[in-house]
Amino acid sequence: MAEAEAMYRRALEGREKAWGPEHTSTLATVNNLGLLYKDQGKMAEAEAMYRRALEGREKAWGPEHTSTLATVNNLGILYTDQGKMAEAEAMYRRALEGLEKAWGPEHTSTLGAVNNLGLLYASQGKMAEAEA
């Protein structure tokens, strides 16, 4: 994992230098670094990367773009892992609503968001909501 982090950092530095900190390709690397940090258990670092990616993607593409919503979903997963259930639910609901608009209710990305929300509800003992 240390090698992966070094490569992401190298890519991030190069993209920031070439395209700037808010370029969408730079933000993709920021999001990927967040995924790596989450996998490493570095939750604060992961959240910082996701927040940066989210803010940049919202500026570049808007709040309902599917790439923006992917980062919203990543934040939901992170918050779930941290036990921040209200924050996780807010992220999952935002991702779900946006994906339903973008792709429709039957798209696999939409259904992934449905599944995440259902798992969150089940973990809280909200079985009726989870079943729905």
Automatic annotation (TrEMBL):
Keywords: TPR repeat. TPR repeats lie at residues 27-60, 69-102. Pfam families: TPR_10, TPR_12. PROSITE patterns: TPR (PS50005). This is Beta transducin-like protein het-e4s. It comes from Lasallia pustulata.
